[in-house]
């Protein structure tokens, strides 16, 4: 069976899309949790008041993986390496900060996302310093 070669930048971008789908589905999955919609309507979720500033901060944090889908494809290798590593660490730390209130499905999604972040870091670390592109089989 012949394997397709996948350019490192394309693989990084695809992994960020994979992470985004997991993050979105995890959030949508919470809506089915008994009492969650009612809790949201009060403006306090897990004991935290949802303010405009908190929503703006959350928007900035959510923008990191969205931006990395694009940047993974257009940045030069050296910048791509560090942008992917730094964005992975920041995004993972933000996701882990929700662990105290995490239930079993949150932990499941977090494990999947952790593996994807680890893959991003390893692939980014292997990006060449020159203009050659890294291919994976």
Automatic annotation (TrEMBL):
<keyword id="KW-0472">Membrane</keyword>
<protein>
    <recommendedName>
        <fullName>DoxX family protein</fullName>
    </recommendedName>
</protein>
<feature type="transmembrane region" description="Helical">
    <location>
        <begin position="82"/>
        <end position="101"/>
    </location>
</feature>
<keyword id="KW-0812">Transmembrane</keyword>
<dbReference type="InterPro" id="IPR046289">
    <property type="entry name" value="DUF6326"/>
</dbReference>
<feature type="transmembrane region" description="Helical">
    <location>
        <begin position="107"/>
        <end position="125"/>
    </location>
</feature>
<keyword id="KW-1133">Transmembrane helix</keyword>
<feature type="transmembrane region" description="Helical">
    <location>
        <begin position="54"/>
        <end position="75"/>
    </location>
</feature>
<dbReference type="Pfam" id="PF19851">
    <property type="entry name" value="DUF6326"/>
</dbReference>
